[in-house]
Amino acid sequence: MSNYHSTMRNAIPETTEWEDLQVKHGNWEAREKPEPPPEWAPREERSAKEKVEACDEAGDLSDLEDDFDDDRFMAQYREARLKELRMKEEAAARVKILPQGHGEPVFIKRDEFIKHVTEAEHGTWVVVFLFQNGHEGCELM
């Protein structure tokens, strides 16, 4: 009979209604609630001076020096990358160049629909987003 099914007790402290009824009628023993895990707290960072004072061997000191070199390098790299991104952003703001055949969203009214969509230049793709003011679904877009 036990070949075709298995039972598994939940490791989570939550119980089911079935289990609660079984405990109430004395068929099962109540589960012991496990202790909650300790609250997580970030480890306190030690200052560079404390790290140096805590080093016992010369190897530990060289590891710390490597960390400081890495920190300096990362700070320089971060500054260079931010400068590069700012320059790209400024260049993009000054000149707006779109690839051939691409455009930008244009708001058209009902009268202009045929001109801009139906009679569009051959080979030009037109994407139409139809909406109605005040419609809840359109407001989400």
Automatic annotation (TrEMBL):
UniProt region (Disordered), positions on chain: 1-63
Recorded superkingdom: Eukaryota
Biased composition (Basic and acidic residues): 21-54
UniProt GO cellular component terms: cytoplasm
GO biological process: protein folding
Coiled-coil boundaries: none
InterPro entries for this protein: Phosducin-like_chap/apop_reg (IPR051498), Thioredoxin-like_sf (IPR036249)
Sequence similarity: Belongs to the phosducin family.
Protein's name in the database: Phosducin-like protein
